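thread: overnight batch results

M.L. [08:02]
morning all. the overnight job finished for the chain we discussed friday. pasting input first so we're all looking at the same thing
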Amino acid sequence: MNNTKRSINFVIAFMTVISLLSFVVPSLNLDALGQNIEIVFPNILFLLFVVVFSLIQFLYRAILTSKHYIKDKVFFSINMKKSKLYSRVISYIAIILLFMWPVIASKNLSSNITIGSMINLLVWIVIIEIIPFISYKYTKIYFMTDGILIRGMDFRIDIPLNPEIFNHSGFYPYYDIQQYSIHNNYLRLSLYNNSGVIEGYIPNERIKPIAAFLESKKIKFKKIN
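M.L. [08:03]
and the structure it wrote out:
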């Protein structure tokens, strides 16, 4: 997925979440919630900016890649190489800021950091850990007749601040791939103009077939010393 499509995906997800937020918050009876507002309101924000945001980005990716996924055109499929930091850092920053905001606003640590809020934070940390686990388990790198397709249950949150591609869902024609390398069962496909890389894990029995397939597509091999 190029950066234009990544930006469109982000804008759609962000504007949808903001629109939902503008409908949800005015409908809340804040007086009836009482002290529970300290738990309910952050949970609404977490739900919208973590779960709903990632769901919308997943749906956009699924629609965008569906036209390229034709079973008869698939030669191989491999697992993606995991990028734990990239997949989690945005979500962690979001929930920590939302968690700490009452403290920052009131400048009173003791009255806002409660056992309930800590348990709530831990629950969302678990959810954040589950999201990339599902994404990496059920998103594959497909070797098609005309290009590389990354597709699956990709719920990773993508904020296009970094222009370089790293295993982003989408379709990459073979003419966009400059070279490949294989080291310790990891395949690295480098895109032209240093625009990014695609990395995946290859089982031993598939190394030679995939290498031969890539060479048949005129993709150069780069030896790693």
